[in-house]
């Protein structure tokens, strides 16, 4: 597979242990060992481990998708998040609509129950008898009493 092994003073040895030969093979195939060494030399030592992890991730992405590499995965995930946010908004709107319908039904039900339990009133409840005649209040009838001409 690989032509030579890394010795103890090799720059790559701390980042590619023998258990992770496959990771080095992927990075080597995409970048080449000498390019990986050049890239690591310009990175501060405290950041080299992260740089190697990034190279391995990007190299695997490049082998999986030569055109978009890991950016293709990022775009796919961003689209998925966008689709889920749209679905969430539709669900929230549906919930609000359902709550409105429930409130409307409860309100209608309360009105029906209120009217069913109210005593039935007649227009004669507030009527008065004066000199043997029944006198109705015009507010009970819901209109003004008709005024007749004086000559009647």
From TrEMBL:
<feature type="domain" description="LOB">
    <location>
        <begin position="1"/>
        <end position="95"/>
    </location>
</feature>
<dbReference type="Pfam" id="PF03195">
    <property type="entry name" value="LOB"/>
</dbReference>
<comment type="similarity">
    <text>Belongs to the LOB domain-containing protein family.</text>
</comment>
<dbReference type="InterPro" id="IPR004883">
    <property type="entry name" value="LOB"/>
</dbReference>
<protein>
    <recommendedName>
        <fullName>LOB domain-containing protein</fullName>
    </recommendedName>
</protein>
């Amino acid at each position: 597979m690989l032509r030579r092994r890394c010795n103890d003073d090799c720059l790559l040895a701390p980042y590619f242990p023998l258990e992770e030969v496959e990771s080095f093979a992927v990075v080597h195939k995409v970048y080449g060992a000498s390019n990986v060494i050049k890239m690591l030399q310009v990175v501060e030592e405290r950041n080299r481990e992260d740089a190697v992890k990034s190279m391995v991730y990007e190299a695997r992405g490049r082998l999986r998708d030569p055109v978009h590499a890991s950016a293709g995965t990022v775009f796919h995930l961003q689209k998925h998040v966008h689709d889920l946010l749209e679905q969430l908004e539709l669900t929230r709107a549906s919930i609000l609509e359902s709550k409105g319908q429930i409130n409307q039904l409860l309100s209608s039900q309360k009105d029906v129950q209120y009217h069913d339990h109210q005593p039935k009133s007649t227009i004669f409840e507030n009527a008065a008898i004066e000199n043997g005649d029944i006198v109705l209040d015009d507010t009970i009838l819901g209109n003004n009493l008709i005024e007749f001409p004086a000559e009647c």
